[in-house]
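Deliverable D2.4 — example input (structure tokens):
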């Protein structure tokens, strides 16, 4: 009886201490990055609750804020496994159309997270989408790569929370090393460190501004010259950054050219600059031209037999395409771009470029780098598949 009394008193003291003492979150051990890595704040990959799985979803003609409320009745909505591109959710015909799809999920959050910083990573579409937690719109602290937000102040701990995601153009945009959808304590994690450097290259046609995007470490890497001039006549730089960053995380060094005028000499100067970099394999340099950059990119590749391959997005006519020989060519074009005229032009180039040409038809009517917004997954997948199939990317 005495032993039971002592045990009872002991348990009472423990429970009292737990009731009066504040929760003390564990102090995370500082993370040390490895060679070529950087440490970023993000939602912890170990302690987090996965948000992947079945969500309620519905295509809507007009989004209404009432759809984000916990009490909103979504019982008649369909279910889909996310994250996934729309094509894998039976919504492939909506890709690149600007349609709006709303997703809803209810998830419980542990009460013992209350004294910690809690983040959420739930951006299916970082360009034209929104994330709501318990009816409040939250903004990511970093996007599009590994986006997250601190939601500590909007969560209900020890009970159910409602998460709503709105998307356009496609349901989920893929990025290397972005991590799974999740909610949990904030922590640190190591990712490939990417360097951006604005440079000026000398060429026979005059100086060319450019941005070099590369992983901090590496050797024998693939190099790619990225060159886009749209129908507005201006060379583009920033629109390449998301793709160039994603390529860098997979061991590809990109050089984004911003020429005042498109000439083969300026493109060739970019090719030679990449070849001279210590970390780039000079036999693995390819060129990627968009829209009005097509002719200059093709002509530069024709003049340089060592160019490993040519990628053309929304290509303009290229009179020298037949001179590319047996080198691999990837053409990507929206099926309804200029009511099919662009597709016919791409088919003509593919026929001229012998049996090494691959033609990928993209959804929608987007042209040039605008296609990155409407058909990101398709462009990214087609490019990486082509690079591996042609052995340009090991």
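Example output (designed residues):
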């Amino acid at each position: 009886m005495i032993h039971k009394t002592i045990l009872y008193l002991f348990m009472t003291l423990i429970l009292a201490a737990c009731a009066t003492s504040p929760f003390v979150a564990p102090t995370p051990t500082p993370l040390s990055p490895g060679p070529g890595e950087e440490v970023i704040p993000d939602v912890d990959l170990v302690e987090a609750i996965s948000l992947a799985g079945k969500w309620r979803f519905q295509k809507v003609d007009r989004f209404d804020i009432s759809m984000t409320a916990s009490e909103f009745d979504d019982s008649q909505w369909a279910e889909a496994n996310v994250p996934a591109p729309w094509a894998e959710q039976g919504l492939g015909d909506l890709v690149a159309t600007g349609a709006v799809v709303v997703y809803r999920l209810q998830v419980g959050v542990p009460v013992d997270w209350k004294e910690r910083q809690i983040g959420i990573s739930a951006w299916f579409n970082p360009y034209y989408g929104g994330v709501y937690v318990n009816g409040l719109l939250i903004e990511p602290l970093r996007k599009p790569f590994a986006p997250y937000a601190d939601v500590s102040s909007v969560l209900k701990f020890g009970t159910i929370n409602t998460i709503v995601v709105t998307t356009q153009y496609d349901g989920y945009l893929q990025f290397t090393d972005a991590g799974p959808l999740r909610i949990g304590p904030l922590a640190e994690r190591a990712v490939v460190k990417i360097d951006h450097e604005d440079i000026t290259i000398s060429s026979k046609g005059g100086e060319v501004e450019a941005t070099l995007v590369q992983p901090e470490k590496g050797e024998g890497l693939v190099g790619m010259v990225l060159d886009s001039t749209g129908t507005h006549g201006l060379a583009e730089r920033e629109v390449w950054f998301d793709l160039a960053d994603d390529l860098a995380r997979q061991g590809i060094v990109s050089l984004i050219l911003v020429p005042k005028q498109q000439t083969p000499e300026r493109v060739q100067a970019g090719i030679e600059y990449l070849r001279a970099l210590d970390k780039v394999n000079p036999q693995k340099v390819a060129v990627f031209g968009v829209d009005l950059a097509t002719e200059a990119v093709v002509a530069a590749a024709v003049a340089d037999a060592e160019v490993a391959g040519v990628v053309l997005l929304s290509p303009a006519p290229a009179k020298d395409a037949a001179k590319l020989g047996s080198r691999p060519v990837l053409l990507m074009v929206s099926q309804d771009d200029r009511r099919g005229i662009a597709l016919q032009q791409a088919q003509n180039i593919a026929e001229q470029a012998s049996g090494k040409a691959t033609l990928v038809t993209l959804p929608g009517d987007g042209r040039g780098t605008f296609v990155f917004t409407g058909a990101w997954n398709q462009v990214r997948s087609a490019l990486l598949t082509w690079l591996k199939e042609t052995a340009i990317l090991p």
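The chain has a mean pLDDT of 90.
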